[in-house]
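Methods — Computational structure assignment.
A single polypeptide chain was analysed. Its primary sequence is given first, followed by the predicted tertiary structure written as structure tokens.
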Amino acid sequence: MPELRLLAAKLFVIFGKTAEFNVSRIGKKPVNIKDVTVNLSKNMLKVKGKLGELSHEVHPAITVKVEGEEIVVTRPDDYKEHRALHGLTRALIQNMVTGVSEGYAKVLDIVGVGYKAELKGENLLLSLGFSHPIYFMPPAGITFEVVTPTQIKISGIDKQLVGLVASKIRSFRKPEPYKGKGIKYSGEIIRRKAGKTAGK
């Protein structure tokens, strides 16, 4: 009996330490909700701030609790899927809190002679060297700002939507590798290729 108790104690120590290392580094961090209003009903989480409101349906396997001025996310076990959901859920909630309180933005630069952007009401008119300009209407929750004729700012409270819209606009004329003409993210480095030279 003493031997069995000793073995059980050793196993507890071993697996206890292992469990500590398996806790998601992102998932275990509480989300500060001091500047927003949170409503949690069953698996539906709503976050409201000065810029708007966002909602997210939490996966049934993940537990979300509001504790004072923090949201705590936990998972039932160490299965691979639950570990991934743990960190993902916490990251999505943090994005919601940041979005409704501070917002998100992406800036695009337009490179090329004659390439430009202008606003027509809330919509974007792009001249990108095609036979006709491109007229782009923002989805709900997205606003455009033409900082200069060659720079566009996309803003919104939904981080994923801001990124998708920026990616869509960039796809209209992706930067080419020879002269760098096209639409690129501000600060994006385009790998240049040397142009072909005529043989002697």
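Note: Residues 1-21 have pLDDT under 50 and may be disordered.
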